[in-house]
């Protein structure tokens, strides 16, 4: 359960709750008998959970899930008896602390809500009481606080202050992006990562251990936050969300309820570098690892995270067209107007995003973006994994392949030569702008050689180069 919570955690509250569950699990399984817990063991587990959660937050604040967790541990420490009595005491202590959170954080009091993470913890403790006693405890009483449906509504009313904002924060504007990712890294690298991310933004929470971590931070430079993760280890399931104008908050400690934006772009991207590029252009991104295409449910969640009335969806992969269509249909049933532009490559998505204008009518914006994507021919250079018949002949494992519009057009042994041949064939039909997206595995000299070739042979053509990160292809090419 703790591992599942770590993998699936969303936002500040979910990330901290995952650490609370992990802290409890560490104590309860320490004796080697994970199937049984005594009252004393449960007390120790609750205390360790509260302490480990505070350690995971860069700047703990009272009136949050941290306060509720500490209150639960304090109440458990004073309880006599077995697990049932300890669990009930922890639940009652947490419930009382939750009811007091609006008086501890002005943002909660102003919005008329309790802390979302604290509410989630009380719900977990209620389930624990039911497990030990067979009886459902009474409902959570929240005097003078407006109850909202679902954790998302509660969280939005006070993020990031609910868990991570500094007590004396008084800045007029907070960071523009929320960056979340899972990270495979060693403890020492994570310690350095904490320091770097803390300097980049706020709302920093890093939870986990044993080589797997969940990282959450609010920053203005989303690319730097992702790059910090790359330097620390292997980040994946990267989610970058632009708060948008409706998310602007008056102070870091007092963010008003989030307004739903009129329009947003949601894009599937194949690498961390592209994720940062898209996010800086205002898109909500979903990272697709090689061999790990996102499911329809993940796309629906990305559309929800965009928090907009109108959404333009860019799958950026021909294989995702049915998945994206199913996600769009599901989102429409939830009242979101969704337009699916069938982009087949991330370079087509870049072209579409470049002409995106949220101020014009939705249909006009979709037509312009669709036209830009359709006018962009796409190619990629990759390495064959096994012997295969292709439209260009037989390839062997390890051969360099050049694909144009999804079909193998060139087979060779040198990345630069194959890339140059692909580029020449694409530009033979004309073009004004070449977009190159280099993966981490691509030789660094490839971009320089291709840029030089364009300058020398195609005088009227411009070139732009991006770093895509750990994308599946060595090189993505777009010609507009």
UniProtKB/TrEMBL annotation:
<feature type="domain" description="DhaL">
    <location>
        <begin position="1"/>
        <end position="130"/>
    </location>
</feature>
<keyword id="KW-0808">Transferase</keyword>
<dbReference type="InterPro" id="IPR048394">
    <property type="entry name" value="FakA-like_M"/>
</dbReference>
<dbReference type="InterPro" id="IPR033470">
    <property type="entry name" value="FakA-like_C"/>
</dbReference>
<dbReference type="InterPro" id="IPR004007">
    <property type="entry name" value="DhaL_dom"/>
</dbReference>
<dbReference type="Pfam" id="PF21645">
    <property type="entry name" value="FakA-like_M"/>
</dbReference>
<dbReference type="GO" id="GO:0004371">
    <property type="term" value="F:glycerone kinase activity"/>
</dbReference>
<dbReference type="InterPro" id="IPR036117">
    <property type="entry name" value="DhaL_dom_sf"/>
</dbReference>
<protein>
    <submittedName>
        <fullName>Dihydroxyacetone kinase family protein</fullName>
    </submittedName>
</protein>
<keyword id="KW-0418">Kinase</keyword>
<dbReference type="Pfam" id="PF13684">
    <property type="entry name" value="FakA-like_C"/>
</dbReference>
<dbReference type="InterPro" id="IPR050270">
    <property type="entry name" value="DegV_domain_contain"/>
</dbReference>
<dbReference type="Pfam" id="PF02734">
    <property type="entry name" value="Dak2"/>
</dbReference>
<dbReference type="GO" id="GO:0006071">
    <property type="term" value="P:glycerol metabolic process"/>
</dbReference>
